[in-house]
Design brief:
Layout (H helix, E strand, L loop, with lengths): L14 H22 L6 H13 L4 E5 L2 H11 L7 E5 L5 H8 L3 E5 L10 H7 L4 E5 L10 H11 L2 E5 L7 E4 L2 E4 L6 E5 L13 E5 L2 H10 L4 E3 L2 E2 L10 H10 L3 H18 L6 E2 L14 E5 L4 H10 L16 H7 L5 H9 E4 L7 H20 L4
Parallel strand pairs: 2-3, 2-4, 4-5, 5-8
Antiparallel strand pairs: 1-9, 6-7, 8-9, 10-11, 12-13, 13-14
Bound molecules: pyridoxal-5'-phosphate.
Length: 387
Protein backbone atom coordinates (compact mmCIF):
# COMPACT_ATOMS: atom_id res chain seq x y z
CA UNK A 1 0.00 0.00 0.00
CA UNK A 2 1.26 3.44 -0.86
CA UNK A 3 1.93 5.76 2.01
CA UNK A 4 -0.69 8.42 2.70
CA UNK A 5 2.21 10.84 3.03
CA UNK A 6 3.45 11.80 -0.40
CA UNK A 7 5.04 14.76 -2.08
CA UNK A 8 1.90 15.77 -3.97
CA UNK A 9 -0.61 18.36 -2.86
CA UNK A 10 -3.68 16.77 -4.35
CA UNK A 11 -6.66 19.07 -4.79
CA UNK A 12 -9.94 18.89 -6.65
CA UNK A 13 -9.09 22.21 -8.29
CA UNK A 14 -5.84 24.20 -8.23
CA UNK A 15 -6.42 27.85 -9.04
CA UNK A 16 -3.27 29.01 -7.29
CA UNK A 17 -0.82 27.19 -9.58
CA UNK A 18 -2.69 28.33 -12.66
CA UNK A 19 -2.46 31.92 -11.50
CA UNK A 20 1.26 31.58 -10.83
CA UNK A 21 1.83 30.14 -14.31
CA UNK A 22 -0.04 33.05 -15.97
CA UNK A 23 0.92 35.65 -13.38
CA UNK A 24 2.70 38.15 -15.59
CA UNK A 25 -0.20 38.40 -18.10
CA UNK A 26 -2.88 38.56 -15.43
CA UNK A 27 -1.05 41.05 -13.23
CA UNK A 28 -0.44 43.32 -16.22
CA UNK A 29 -4.11 43.14 -17.26
CA UNK A 30 -5.27 43.90 -13.72
CA UNK A 31 -2.81 46.74 -13.24
CA UNK A 32 -3.93 48.35 -16.51
CA UNK A 33 -7.62 48.06 -15.60
CA UNK A 34 -7.03 49.47 -12.12
CA UNK A 35 -4.99 52.36 -13.53
CA UNK A 36 -7.82 53.07 -15.98
CA UNK A 37 -10.30 52.93 -13.06
CA UNK A 38 -13.48 52.43 -15.08
CA UNK A 39 -14.58 49.65 -12.75
CA UNK A 40 -18.13 49.38 -14.08
CA UNK A 41 -18.57 48.73 -17.82
CA UNK A 42 -14.94 49.60 -18.51
CA UNK A 43 -13.54 48.96 -21.97
CA UNK A 44 -12.31 45.48 -21.01
CA UNK A 45 -15.90 44.25 -20.73
CA UNK A 46 -16.78 44.99 -24.35
CA UNK A 47 -13.40 43.79 -25.60
CA UNK A 48 -13.73 40.51 -23.75
CA UNK A 49 -17.26 40.01 -25.12
CA UNK A 50 -16.03 40.65 -28.65
CA UNK A 51 -13.06 38.32 -28.33
CA UNK A 52 -15.09 35.51 -26.79
CA UNK A 53 -17.70 35.90 -29.54
CA UNK A 54 -15.00 35.43 -32.16
CA UNK A 55 -13.49 32.47 -30.27
CA UNK A 56 -16.92 30.79 -30.29
CA UNK A 57 -17.19 31.08 -34.04
CA UNK A 58 -18.93 34.44 -34.33
CA UNK A 59 -21.77 35.16 -31.92
CA UNK A 60 -22.99 38.08 -29.80
CA UNK A 61 -21.77 37.78 -26.20
CA UNK A 62 -23.66 39.65 -23.50
CA UNK A 63 -21.65 39.59 -20.27
CA UNK A 64 -23.45 39.55 -16.92
CA UNK A 65 -22.85 39.01 -13.22
CA UNK A 66 -22.79 35.20 -13.05
CA UNK A 67 -24.04 32.06 -14.75
CA UNK A 68 -27.27 31.96 -12.78
CA UNK A 69 -28.11 35.49 -13.91
CA UNK A 70 -27.29 34.48 -17.48
CA UNK A 71 -29.94 31.75 -17.27
CA UNK A 72 -32.42 34.14 -15.67
CA UNK A 73 -31.78 36.83 -18.29
CA UNK A 74 -32.19 34.29 -21.10
CA UNK A 75 -35.57 33.15 -19.82
CA UNK A 76 -36.68 36.74 -19.14
CA UNK A 77 -35.75 37.69 -22.70
CA UNK A 78 -38.11 35.05 -24.09
CA UNK A 79 -41.09 36.90 -22.52
CA UNK A 80 -42.85 33.77 -21.31
CA UNK A 81 -46.12 33.64 -19.39
CA UNK A 82 -46.47 32.42 -15.79
CA UNK A 83 -47.02 28.68 -15.78
CA UNK A 84 -45.27 28.14 -19.09
CA UNK A 85 -43.16 25.00 -18.95
CA UNK A 86 -39.44 24.66 -19.35
CA UNK A 87 -38.15 21.13 -19.84
CA UNK A 88 -34.74 20.68 -18.28
CA UNK A 89 -32.54 17.92 -16.97
CA UNK A 90 -33.15 16.38 -13.57
CA UNK A 91 -29.40 16.00 -13.07
CA UNK A 92 -27.59 19.33 -12.79
CA UNK A 93 -26.59 22.09 -10.46
CA UNK A 94 -29.64 23.71 -8.84
CA UNK A 95 -29.24 27.04 -10.66
CA UNK A 96 -30.76 25.62 -13.81
CA UNK A 97 -34.08 24.78 -12.16
CA UNK A 98 -33.98 27.66 -9.70
CA UNK A 99 -34.27 30.43 -12.27
CA UNK A 100 -37.18 28.69 -13.96
CA UNK A 101 -39.08 28.51 -10.68
CA UNK A 102 -38.11 32.06 -9.65
CA UNK A 103 -39.67 33.44 -12.81
CA UNK A 104 -42.99 31.72 -12.10
CA UNK A 105 -42.40 29.17 -14.83
CA UNK A 106 -42.74 25.45 -14.30
CA UNK A 107 -39.63 23.28 -14.42
CA UNK A 108 -40.42 19.92 -16.00
CA UNK A 109 -37.63 17.47 -15.29
CA UNK A 110 -36.50 15.02 -17.94
CA UNK A 111 -34.42 11.93 -17.28
CA UNK A 112 -30.84 11.55 -18.45
CA UNK A 113 -28.81 9.32 -20.68
CA UNK A 114 -26.96 6.84 -18.44
CA UNK A 115 -23.72 7.09 -20.40
CA UNK A 116 -23.32 10.86 -20.80
CA UNK A 117 -25.36 12.07 -17.77
CA UNK A 118 -27.01 14.54 -20.17
CA UNK A 119 -30.71 15.11 -20.79
CA UNK A 120 -32.29 12.25 -22.75
CA UNK A 121 -34.13 13.47 -25.87
CA UNK A 122 -36.55 10.52 -25.65
CA UNK A 123 -37.55 11.59 -22.15
CA UNK A 124 -37.89 15.20 -23.37
CA UNK A 125 -40.12 14.12 -26.27
CA UNK A 126 -42.48 12.36 -23.88
CA UNK A 127 -42.82 15.50 -21.72
CA UNK A 128 -43.62 18.05 -24.42
CA UNK A 129 -47.15 19.35 -23.93
CA UNK A 130 -49.33 22.36 -24.76
CA UNK A 131 -47.63 24.61 -22.16
CA UNK A 132 -44.05 23.69 -23.14
CA UNK A 133 -42.15 26.73 -24.39
CA UNK A 134 -38.46 26.06 -23.77
CA UNK A 135 -35.97 23.21 -23.76
CA UNK A 136 -33.10 23.91 -21.38
CA UNK A 137 -30.35 21.31 -21.78
CA UNK A 138 -27.20 21.43 -19.65
CA UNK A 139 -23.91 20.27 -21.17
CA UNK A 140 -22.95 18.50 -17.98
CA UNK A 141 -19.37 17.90 -16.82
CA UNK A 142 -18.01 19.41 -20.05
CA UNK A 143 -19.68 17.27 -22.71
CA UNK A 144 -22.44 18.01 -25.22
CA UNK A 145 -26.06 17.10 -24.74
CA UNK A 146 -27.58 15.60 -27.91
CA UNK A 147 -28.18 18.88 -29.75
CA UNK A 148 -29.18 17.26 -33.07
CA UNK A 149 -32.10 15.51 -31.39
CA UNK A 150 -33.03 18.43 -29.14
CA UNK A 151 -32.98 21.03 -31.92
CA UNK A 152 -35.12 18.72 -34.08
CA UNK A 153 -37.69 18.39 -31.27
CA UNK A 154 -37.65 22.16 -30.75
CA UNK A 155 -38.19 22.82 -34.45
CA UNK A 156 -41.04 20.32 -34.64
CA UNK A 157 -42.82 21.86 -31.62
CA UNK A 158 -41.76 25.51 -32.11
CA UNK A 159 -39.86 25.70 -28.82
CA UNK A 160 -37.01 27.89 -27.69
CA UNK A 161 -33.71 26.23 -26.80
CA UNK A 162 -31.55 27.74 -24.07
CA UNK A 163 -28.23 25.94 -23.56
CA UNK A 164 -26.60 25.89 -20.14
CA UNK A 165 -22.93 25.71 -21.12
CA UNK A 166 -21.58 26.73 -17.68
CA UNK A 167 -19.55 23.52 -17.45
CA UNK A 168 -18.59 23.18 -21.09
CA UNK A 169 -17.30 26.46 -22.48
CA UNK A 170 -14.94 25.65 -25.36
CA UNK A 171 -16.53 22.25 -25.99
CA UNK A 172 -17.93 21.45 -29.42
CA UNK A 173 -20.24 18.95 -31.04
CA UNK A 174 -21.07 17.95 -34.58
CA UNK A 175 -24.18 19.82 -35.66
CA UNK A 176 -25.43 20.30 -39.21
CA UNK A 177 -22.32 18.53 -40.44
CA UNK A 178 -19.74 20.71 -38.74
CA UNK A 179 -18.16 21.17 -35.33
CA UNK A 180 -19.91 23.97 -33.48
CA UNK A 181 -19.22 25.52 -30.10
CA UNK A 182 -21.67 24.48 -27.40
CA UNK A 183 -23.80 27.42 -26.35
CA UNK A 184 -24.05 28.72 -29.93
CA UNK A 185 -26.49 26.14 -31.31
CA UNK A 186 -29.70 26.96 -29.44
CA UNK A 187 -31.40 30.36 -29.45
CA UNK A 188 -29.49 31.49 -26.35
CA UNK A 189 -26.43 30.05 -24.62
CA UNK A 190 -25.63 30.77 -20.98
CA UNK A 191 -22.28 30.36 -19.33
CA UNK A 192 -20.47 31.02 -16.06
CA UNK A 193 -16.99 32.30 -15.33
CA UNK A 194 -17.03 30.93 -11.77
CA UNK A 195 -13.37 30.29 -10.87
CA UNK A 196 -13.45 26.50 -11.34
CA UNK A 197 -15.24 26.53 -14.71
CA UNK A 198 -13.34 25.96 -17.98
CA UNK A 199 -12.70 29.72 -18.22
CA UNK A 200 -12.78 31.12 -14.70
CA UNK A 201 -12.37 34.61 -13.29
CA UNK A 202 -11.27 35.61 -9.80
CA UNK A 203 -14.86 35.87 -8.63
CA UNK A 204 -18.29 35.73 -10.22
CA UNK A 205 -19.04 36.31 -13.88
CA UNK A 206 -21.28 35.03 -16.64
CA UNK A 207 -22.57 35.67 -20.14
CA UNK A 208 -25.37 34.98 -22.59
CA UNK A 209 -24.73 34.19 -26.25
CA UNK A 210 -27.16 34.70 -29.09
CA UNK A 211 -27.23 35.21 -32.85
CA UNK A 212 -30.58 37.00 -32.78
CA UNK A 213 -30.20 40.77 -32.61
CA UNK A 214 -33.56 41.33 -30.89
CA UNK A 215 -32.73 38.81 -28.17
CA UNK A 216 -29.30 40.38 -27.69
CA UNK A 217 -30.87 43.79 -27.32
CA UNK A 218 -33.44 42.51 -24.80
CA UNK A 219 -30.82 40.69 -22.74
CA UNK A 220 -28.59 43.75 -22.66
CA UNK A 221 -31.51 45.91 -21.59
CA UNK A 222 -32.76 43.42 -18.98
CA UNK A 223 -29.29 43.25 -17.42
CA UNK A 224 -29.29 47.05 -17.15
CA UNK A 225 -32.50 47.63 -15.15
CA UNK A 226 -34.61 47.23 -18.28
CA UNK A 227 -33.28 50.39 -19.86
CA UNK A 228 -32.02 51.02 -23.35
CA UNK A 229 -31.13 54.60 -22.74
CA UNK A 230 -30.15 56.06 -19.41
CA UNK A 231 -33.08 56.66 -17.02
CA UNK A 232 -35.66 55.38 -19.49
CA UNK A 233 -36.84 51.98 -18.27
CA UNK A 234 -38.87 50.13 -20.87
CA UNK A 235 -39.13 46.81 -19.03
CA UNK A 236 -38.53 45.47 -15.53
CA UNK A 237 -34.99 44.24 -15.46
CA UNK A 238 -32.23 43.42 -13.03
CA UNK A 239 -28.73 44.66 -12.35
CA UNK A 240 -26.25 42.10 -13.60
CA UNK A 241 -22.82 43.15 -14.81
CA UNK A 242 -19.45 41.57 -15.39
CA UNK A 243 -16.93 43.64 -13.41
CA UNK A 244 -14.24 45.36 -15.44
CA UNK A 245 -11.58 43.66 -13.31
CA UNK A 246 -13.08 40.22 -14.01
CA UNK A 247 -13.25 41.04 -17.71
CA UNK A 248 -9.58 42.04 -17.66
CA UNK A 249 -8.63 38.71 -16.07
CA UNK A 250 -10.86 36.71 -18.40
CA UNK A 251 -9.41 38.52 -21.41
CA UNK A 252 -5.92 37.56 -20.31
CA UNK A 253 -7.00 33.94 -19.84
CA UNK A 254 -9.13 33.54 -22.98
CA UNK A 255 -6.16 32.83 -25.32
CA UNK A 256 -5.34 29.89 -23.02
CA UNK A 257 -8.81 28.31 -23.11
CA UNK A 258 -7.88 25.63 -25.65
CA UNK A 259 -4.73 24.84 -23.70
CA UNK A 260 -6.77 24.59 -20.47
CA UNK A 261 -9.04 22.08 -22.21
CA UNK A 262 -6.05 20.12 -23.57
CA UNK A 263 -4.62 19.92 -20.05
CA UNK A 264 -7.92 18.65 -18.65
CA UNK A 265 -8.11 16.08 -21.43
CA UNK A 266 -4.55 14.95 -20.68
CA UNK A 267 -5.51 14.26 -17.05
CA UNK A 268 -8.60 12.39 -18.24
CA UNK A 269 -6.42 10.34 -20.61
CA UNK A 270 -4.20 9.22 -17.71
CA UNK A 271 -7.26 8.29 -15.63
CA UNK A 272 -8.86 6.51 -18.56
CA UNK A 273 -5.72 4.48 -19.24
CA UNK A 274 -4.95 3.57 -15.62
CA UNK A 275 -8.53 2.75 -14.66
CA UNK A 276 -9.57 0.56 -17.57
CA UNK A 277 -11.27 -2.70 -16.50
CA UNK A 278 -11.28 -1.70 -12.86
CA UNK A 279 -13.89 -3.50 -10.74
CA UNK A 280 -16.97 -1.49 -9.69
CA UNK A 281 -16.09 1.52 -11.87
CA UNK A 282 -17.68 2.82 -15.05
CA UNK A 283 -15.47 5.49 -16.61
CA UNK A 284 -16.76 8.62 -18.38
CA UNK A 285 -18.08 7.95 -21.85
CA UNK A 286 -16.81 10.13 -24.69
CA UNK A 287 -19.24 10.53 -27.55
CA UNK A 288 -17.76 10.45 -31.03
CA UNK A 289 -17.98 13.74 -32.88
CA UNK A 290 -17.98 15.84 -29.71
CA UNK A 291 -15.12 17.32 -27.70
CA UNK A 292 -15.41 16.49 -23.99
CA UNK A 293 -13.76 19.28 -22.00
CA UNK A 294 -13.75 17.44 -18.66
CA UNK A 295 -14.83 20.21 -16.38
CA UNK A 296 -15.37 17.17 -14.19
CA UNK A 297 -14.06 13.64 -14.49
CA UNK A 298 -17.02 11.71 -13.16
CA UNK A 299 -17.10 7.96 -12.62
CA UNK A 300 -19.90 5.67 -11.59
CA UNK A 301 -19.32 3.37 -8.62
CA UNK A 302 -21.49 0.23 -8.64
CA UNK A 303 -22.95 -1.98 -5.93
CA UNK A 304 -23.43 0.72 -3.31
CA UNK A 305 -19.68 1.05 -2.74
CA UNK A 306 -19.34 4.78 -3.43
CA UNK A 307 -19.12 5.87 0.21
CA UNK A 308 -16.66 3.07 1.03
CA UNK A 309 -14.50 3.98 -1.96
CA UNK A 310 -14.58 7.66 -1.08
CA UNK A 311 -13.52 6.86 2.48
CA UNK A 312 -10.59 4.73 1.34
CA UNK A 313 -9.52 7.43 -1.10
CA UNK A 314 -9.62 10.03 1.60
CA UNK A 315 -7.37 7.86 3.78
CA UNK A 316 -4.88 7.79 0.87
CA UNK A 317 -5.00 11.58 0.59
CA UNK A 318 -7.02 11.55 -2.64
CA UNK A 319 -9.93 14.00 -2.60
CA UNK A 320 -13.17 13.26 -4.45
CA UNK A 321 -16.61 14.89 -4.62
CA UNK A 322 -20.18 13.96 -5.40
CA UNK A 323 -21.76 16.09 -8.12
CA UNK A 324 -24.70 15.74 -7.45
CA UNK A 325 -25.98 13.73 -4.48
CA UNK A 326 -29.66 14.41 -5.26
CA UNK A 327 -31.46 14.77 -8.56
CA UNK A 328 -33.29 18.09 -8.87
CA UNK A 329 -36.78 16.62 -8.56
CA UNK A 330 -35.63 15.11 -5.25
CA UNK A 331 -34.42 18.42 -3.84
CA UNK A 332 -36.73 19.80 -1.15
CA UNK A 333 -36.93 23.12 -3.02
CA UNK A 334 -38.22 21.56 -6.23
CA UNK A 335 -40.01 18.41 -5.09
CA UNK A 336 -43.44 20.07 -4.89
CA UNK A 337 -43.05 21.70 -8.31
CA UNK A 338 -41.81 18.46 -9.84
CA UNK A 339 -44.60 16.33 -8.40
CA UNK A 340 -44.24 12.61 -7.78
CA UNK A 341 -42.13 11.76 -10.81
CA UNK A 342 -39.73 8.84 -11.12
CA UNK A 343 -36.61 9.54 -13.15
CA UNK A 344 -34.64 6.33 -12.68
CA UNK A 345 -31.47 7.25 -14.54
CA UNK A 346 -31.06 10.61 -12.80
CA UNK A 347 -31.73 8.97 -9.45
CA UNK A 348 -29.24 6.16 -10.15
CA UNK A 349 -26.61 8.70 -11.20
CA UNK A 350 -27.07 10.65 -7.98
CA UNK A 351 -26.37 7.45 -6.03
CA UNK A 352 -23.36 6.34 -8.08
CA UNK A 353 -21.38 9.32 -9.36
CA UNK A 354 -17.99 10.26 -7.99
CA UNK A 355 -15.77 13.03 -9.40
CA UNK A 356 -11.99 12.85 -9.19
CA UNK A 357 -9.59 15.81 -8.96
CA UNK A 358 -9.53 17.68 -12.28
CA UNK A 359 -7.72 20.89 -13.10
CA UNK A 360 -5.31 22.45 -15.56
CA UNK A 361 -2.21 22.23 -13.37
CA UNK A 362 -2.18 18.55 -12.51
CA UNK A 363 1.11 16.78 -13.16
CA UNK A 364 0.89 13.47 -14.99
CA UNK A 365 2.57 11.85 -11.97
CA UNK A 366 -0.21 13.19 -9.76
CA UNK A 367 -2.90 11.91 -12.10
CA UNK A 368 -1.20 8.50 -12.19
CA UNK A 369 -0.92 8.45 -8.39
CA UNK A 370 -4.60 9.30 -8.05
CA UNK A 371 -5.59 6.66 -10.59
CA UNK A 372 -3.45 3.96 -8.96
CA UNK A 373 -5.06 4.68 -5.63
CA UNK A 374 -8.54 4.69 -7.13
CA UNK A 375 -7.81 1.30 -8.67
CA UNK A 376 -6.39 -0.13 -5.45
CA UNK A 377 -9.30 1.19 -3.36
CA UNK A 378 -11.90 -0.04 -5.86
CA UNK A 379 -10.30 -3.49 -5.86
CA UNK A 380 -10.37 -3.53 -2.06
CA UNK A 381 -14.02 -2.45 -2.04
CA UNK A 382 -14.87 -5.16 -4.56
CA UNK A 383 -13.19 -7.84 -2.42
CA UNK A 384 -14.54 -6.51 0.86
CA UNK A 385 -17.82 -4.79 0.07
CA UNK A 386 -19.22 -2.68 2.88
CA UNK A 387 -22.96 -3.09 3.18
C1 LIG B 1 -21.88 26.84 -12.26
C2 LIG B 1 -23.17 26.53 -12.90
C3 LIG B 1 -24.21 27.46 -13.01
C4 LIG B 1 -24.22 28.76 -12.27
O1 LIG B 1 -23.14 29.58 -12.48
P1 LIG B 1 -22.79 30.73 -11.38
O2 LIG B 1 -21.82 31.58 -12.12
O3 LIG B 1 -22.22 30.03 -10.21
O4 LIG B 1 -24.05 31.44 -11.08
C5 LIG B 1 -25.33 27.11 -13.72
N1 LIG B 1 -25.47 25.92 -14.29
C6 LIG B 1 -24.51 24.97 -14.18
C7 LIG B 1 -24.71 23.65 -14.85
C8 LIG B 1 -23.34 25.25 -13.48
O5 LIG B 1 -22.41 24.30 -13.38
Amino acid sequence: MEAAQHEFRLRMVDLEQQYLRLKSDIDAALAAAVADSRYINGPEVGLFAQELGVALGGIQVLPCGNGTDALQLALMALELQPGDEVITTAFSFAATAEVIALLGLKPVFADIDAQTFNIDPASVAALIGPRTRVLLPVHLFGQAADMEALMALAAAHKLWVVEDVAQALGATCRFNGRDQALGTIGHIGCTSFFPSKNLGGFGDGGACFTRQAHLAQRIRSLATHGSEQQYLHTRIGINSRLDTLQAAILRAKLPHLNDFIARRRAVAAVYQQELGHCPLLTLPFEQSGALHTYNQYTLRVAKGQRAALQERLQAAGVPSRIYYPLALHQQPAFAALAGPVALPEAEAASREVLSLPMHTEMLSGEAAYIARNVRRCAEECALNPSL
